[in-house]
Amino acid sequence: MRYGFAIDTKRCIGCHTCSTACRIENNLPAGMWWNRALTEGGAEMDTPAGEFPDATMSYLTVACQHCENPACVKVCPVGATYKDPETGVVRQDYDKCIGCRMCMSACPYNGVRSFNWEEPSYVVDFAMGDADVPPHQKHVVEKCTMCWHRLAKGEEPMCVKTCLARARFWGDLDDPESEVAKLVRERSSKQLLADEGTKPSVYYLV
Amino acid sequence: MSDINNGVGVIDDDFNPAAAPGAREAAGVRAAAWGGRGLTVAIGVSAALAVLGIVLWVIQLSGGMVQTGMRNLDSWGLYITNFMFFVGLSAGGLIISSVPKAFGIAGFGGISKVAVWTSIAATVCAIAFVVVDLGQPMRLWELFAYSNLGSPLMWDIIVLGTYLILSCVYLWATLQNERGRVSATALRVISVVALVCAVLVHSVTAWIFGLQQGREMWHTALLAPWFVSSALVCGTALVAIVVVALRKAGYLALDQANVTKLAKLLGAFICVDLYFFGCDLLTEAFPAAGGMAVVDMLVSGPLAPFFWVEVIGCVACAVVCFTPSLRRPGLIVGASALAIAAIFCKRVQLLIGGFQITNLEMAGPVTPMTVTGWESGISGAYQGLVYWPTMIEWGVTLGVIALGALILLAGLRYLPLRPKQD
Amino acid sequence: MSGTNLTRRSFLKTTGAVAGASCLAAGSFGALRAFADDGDEKPGSGEQLFNCNCRSNCMGSCRLLAHVRDGKIVKLSPGGYQEPGYTGCCLKGLSYIERIYSPTRIQYPMRRVDGTERGAGQWERVTWDEAIAEIAQKMQDTIDQYGPKAIAFDAASGNYGYINGVYGLFPRLAACLGAIKTAACYDYAAGHGIDRVLGTGDWQYCNEPNSVLDSSMVVVWGTNPVFTHPHSWRWIQWAKEKGTKVVTIDPIKSATAHRSDEYIRVNPGHDGYLALAMANYVIEHDLVDWDFIGKRSNGAFLVRQDTKRHLSTANWPAESAAAYAAAVAAAKEKYAAQGATAVAAAVAAIPVDYYVWDNATGAITLIDDAQDPAMEGSFSTPDGIALDASYGLLKEQLSQYSIAEAARLTGLTEDFIVEFTERFAAERAVSVNITYGLDHFLNGYQNTWAIAILMALTGNLAKPGAGFTGVFTTRWSPETLGLWVTKEYKGLNATIPFGLMPEIVATQSLNGKPFPMKVMVSYCANPASNLGGQREFLDRLLPNLDYYVVIDMEMTDSARYADMVLPATSWYEVEDIRAGYNNPYTIYQEKAIEPLYESKPDSEIAYLLGRALGFEASFPEGDGIEKWAAILFSNAASKAKGLSLDRFRQEKVIQTTGTPGEAYITGMTDPFKTEKGRVRLYTDNPKPRLDYGQDLSDRVDGEHLVYYRDPEECGIDNPLAEKYPLVYLQEHSRFRVHTQWGRVPLLRELDPEPLAKVNGKDAAERGVTTDDLVEVYNDRGHCVVKCLVDESIAPGVVSIPKGWQRDQFIEGGYQEMSQPGMDPYPSAASFYDARVNFRKWEA
């Protein structure tokens, strides 16, 4: 199995609902976003490139690409980040991580990995999100887990569930009958930093 | 000049075989107790600063690394910069000292022990810089329990550890050789191994950066040879400073010709280093495509001060090294310091440069965990330097350097590092 | 109707499968949503799920499941609707948890410390008993001295629950007191203008969102669904994927414009003229949909020149008129006891028929009897009453609106306007998607009136895929009036628009006559932040108000300036019911968690206050949701659908408008509530939305036929443009609904601070760039904010996104500069009808 995503950029409106759902589901600490809606356009969020009225703007949501050839897995000295052979999910073992941040240097997708630079702090005094999410630890690296705790229960990642534009599709890229495989086959798509050779498992339908 | 001799400074006219051990001991004690109050004070200060560094490190760990200037988009900083730098210093020092022995050629007048000890101190610093950069240093043991042997960082841990041990063995072997207990051949073998290890150490350190295709500035095959050449520059320069200073302090005698040799070698290494730099710049600039971002960043962008200090500093140093009339001890020390500063600037360029250019330029949410200058949004983050150290980083850095200084000075005081006296 | 017979089990089943059977156009969006798992979230370990919904004024009304663990809501997930195309939630709804547990939440009643300034932030804690007693005492003293109308209960749009929201129990208290229940005045212009044509009242003009799937073109006019109502946008996007053309008309290139097939840029404030010129062109070039005009409009109705009213059985001939008058008198007598609204409804129910000129017979006949009604021409009754056909009057009225002037005012080229008009008229079915961009000007209602006329002339009404969309509201209403009228009913004075309050309080008069106004209670409202021209509230209203009570979850601007602040519960801490916006459902809210701290539901606060004021009969012990729901569902409309609290508790969601699998079309699914169910090319009886005694005698004659009027301030010809060259918009943001969600930490990470969005040219002219601090100002006020150069903004426009409170600005506040004026017909806030300038700000 090779779980991956197809994200329809024609539908994506960069609303941050997926990011917010992820943030709450995984009880992310203050200041941390595993998934971010990025603006393809101007220098600031929600601004376009070019000049009015010919300016253009679109959105890409970017989280860990769960690459087939991940740069991060190669360099982690203790194997805290590793690729699950069955599902293809690139996972992170918080207990093993020594906080060397080599993976953050290696990953070409700047910003998808986050380090807990301080004791994780929260707005509320109880854990939000799913009870099965591993607790966050100070001074280790984190990133999108593809909602592993939900996959374990036969549920899809939270970002896919909550996308209000119905732009996110997820499934087994190796299964030709899966929705995601069909979309990648039938629609034009692009991948982020395809030249890097990391073979990301996220396809942006264009 | 540095004949390999069987003793340590034994005065010949009283040669009494029976008394030799006692005299030798006395001489050793004398050597071990070198240095007056000045050295004592220096050792004390180094120790104090090292302790302060440890305290700050504990503060960093308990209060969180958020107290540093590093954040998600610039996840390495002063510590890893210094790690690179000190590996370079140490590798350079060892190469300088082991090459003559390895090739059986004339060396630099018996300074090799001092050079090796300097190198060992630098190695300790390098390892310490990695440790203080770790988020979970208590999990260091995992490096040996769960080692991912495919990781360049793992290779570096192995090689650095090996290198540290090997440096100590080399020093011991040198001492033993001087006492006639280790043969010249054996020493030569060890020195060859040490040399290879030194080259490997810095190559592997380079590969931590150079093998990452994700960072434009880092991903070049040239990086390993280039690190070695930079190591030779700063290592040689450090050795030159140390031995000239020790000569001034009366710790050892050193023929000026040897210093000149060192200086000329330094000059040559600078030429090689600048040659590599030029190759890299040209390769990045020529297509006038993606690589231009790197060139612009260095030549006129946020890293320009570091770039120009390096280039001008190196050139100035080379001029001093190659101009006979300028090869005076004071100027040589000055030029060497400039070379060391230049190489430090090179490390800064590389470290910050790797993070200064982003692969995903698109604007997105920026929080205090993303960059320190988060209030200005994503474009603001990259306008100036994406990273600058905070006070605690300077403090810990000072502490580690002080630790290295402590090792060096204590070694000078207590270890038989002086060149064998004629 | 039988679609409402869902059992709980079948509803919670895989909604995907249900959708497949009932989805609108075969194979459309049903196939577009296939998830690895389907349907609602299952409870995680240790979790209990509660059925909930979002109740803000965001056009969403999403159903949410609250996941509760150890008595705390740990997450919210979107709850499925029978039609899965309506299922969804946004970042705001999901992050509501951070509002519930926010440290900024008001925990207990607080009184402003005696002797301190309002807004100084000096509070002392009081018990509920003390607070209620004090408020009751203040109210009673006021009533004793000035009468009950010196007390105003002010609600806006903070909460649409029937029990604890703007409709809730406070109007019952106001009615017992005979106090003023101010009328909200946000977003009323759009409906007022459309009502002139469709008779759809304030809110019922839109088709169901899914109707766009049947449109050949969607014109998004003055609204930005990508940001502000993405659940609406989802349908438009699906339509786009099936080939529907999507066009956005907007003064700025909104996020929606970026996603549209075509972006039409217009100068703000003159859209009405564009529509009128287009309508004129349609008539002049014979592009009128005569089938629609003939069968579905009142174009043939005759208009009496003497009264400007239609010739009808109510006024001609004499015997018929007399009979009608008698019927009216009888109705008044019969229903007088039940109040003005009941009387009006009874009078409206008296059947009236309308006359046309039948060309076939050359005589005046009732419309249904005519064979060939005349659309144009002047005629007269046998007894000499001069008459004109309505269509002809409209045609003459429209003839003054030229393409050339439309081009000048809007900035479009004449060729383009012509081409667009021809396209518009040729389209099979056009949906015009609006919310309130067009509305927020003093000529707001004329804007939408003109568009409605254009749609009528081109036949884009009352058929699949045609009409207005964007604010689809329930066509079923519960018995809210019954909830408010008890035996102790004294009077429900609900006609004073809140926008007049600063003037009333400052002058203690209305319409030139004394009107003491001393006490105000704001609930589900934040007028200090949201009223246009904020200084009116701060400098005129506040200083002259004796006593101000605010009920809220957080210290909003209004709460800061109050004398007494009462903590309200969040939406998840109460049981409630709301009818959805932009979906055809009414959704039940289960109480998911206990009220936090000392907060109380609005209904309970009204209950306590009511009893403290002596109205135990109207607020009896044991009063609660069971009793209130029983009243709400007691009307015929509710009974027809078999609604009850029990049923809601069981089924959680009930479709209360339209039919599953179909799209509700205004004027098609149900007839227009107009004269003979026909759209009005001529408006017989134009009335102001609210009658607060204003004198409109000099305007009424001009309100029968659509006309163009310049905006008050922002128009291109306005002399104010010299001093204040930029039009001031306050675009609505995806991160807030008005001021709600304005302090949610995770949203603030995404949108940290207020910004003045300006075009690069305007910024360069003033020597500023992104991140510079700028002062945006006009004669009404100023604010200091960070500048953002944004090429979505047209030159000549400044936009400061809405919803920031005063303490979030470096100086001043963005609401100071907006337009406080209102037109007395719609009594609608006209925020964007304002001009400003900006400059670099030195500290």
What would your notes on this structure say?
The complex is a heterotrimer of chains A (206), B (422) and C (843). With 206 residues, chain A is an alpha+beta fold. Chain A has helices at residues 17-25, 71-75, 102-106, 148-151, 158-162, 179-186, and strands at 3-8, 36-40, 58-62, 81-83, 90-92, 114-115, 141-142, 168-172, 189-190, 202-205. Chain A has a four-stranded mixed sheet. In chain A, a hairpin with a 6-residue loop joins strand 4 and strand 5 (90-92). The longest helix of chain A is centred in the N-terminal third of the chain and has 9 residues, at 17-25. Chain A is globular and about 50 Å long. The two termini of chain A are 25 Å apart. Chain B is mainly alpha-helical. Chain B is built from 14 helices and no strands. The radius of gyration of chain B is 23 Å and the shape is globular. With 843 residues, chain C is of the alpha/beta class. Among the domains of chain C are: 189-290 and 410-469, Dimethylsulfoxide Reductase, domain 2, CATH 3.40.228; 719-840, Barwin-like endoglucanases. Chain C is built from 30 helices and 32 strands. The radius of gyration of chain C is 27 Å and the shape is globular. The N and C termini of chain C lie far apart (64 Å). The chains are: A alpha+beta (206), B mainly alpha (422), C alpha/beta (843). Chains in contact: A-B, A-C, B-C. Chains A and C meet through helix 1 and helix 5 of A and strand 3, helix 10, helix 11 and helix 29 of C.
Describe the secondary-structure layout.
The complex is a heterotrimer of chains A (206), B (422) and C (843).
Chain A: E1 3-8, H1 17-25, E2 36-40, E3 58-62, H2 71-75, E4 81-83, E5 90-92, H3 102-106, E6 114-115, E7 141-142, H4 148-151, H5 158-162, E8 168-172, H6 179-186, E9 189-190, E10 202-205
Chain B: H1 20-32, H2 37-63, H3 78-103, H4 112-133, H5 142-145, H6 152-178, H7 184-210, H8 223-248, H9 256-285, H10 292-299, H11 304-322, H12 329-356, H13 377-381, H14 391-414
Chain C: H1 8-12, H2 15-22, H3 29-32, E1 48-53, E2 63-69, E3 72-78, H4 91-94, H5 96-100, E4 110-112, E5 123-125, H6 128-146, E6 151-155, H7 170-177, E7 180-181, H8 189-198, E8 217-221, H9 225-228, H10 230-241, E9 245-250, H11 255-259, E10 262-265, H12 271-284, H13 290-296, E11 302-304, H14 318-335, H15 340-348, E12 355-358, E13 363-366, E14 378-380, E15 386-389, H16 390-398, H17 403-410, H18 414-426, E16 430-433, H19 444-457, E17 467-469, H20 480-484, H21 501-507, E18 509-510, E19 513-514, E20 519-523, H22 527-530, H23 534-541, E21 547-552, H24 557-560, E22 564-567, E23 576-579, E24 585-589, H25 602-612, H26 625-632, H27 636-640, H28 645-651, E25 653-655, E26 726-729, H29 745-750, E27 755-758, H30 760-765, E28 773-778, E29 781-789, E30 797-799, E31 811-812, E32 835-840
Parallel strand pairs in C: 6-7, 6-20, 8-9, 8-16, 9-10, 16-17, 20-21, 21-22, 26-30, 27-29
Antiparallel strand pairs in C: 1-2, 2-3, 4-5, 4-22, 11-15, 12-13, 14-15, 18-19, 23-24, 24-25, 26-32, 27-30, 28-29, 28-32, 29-31
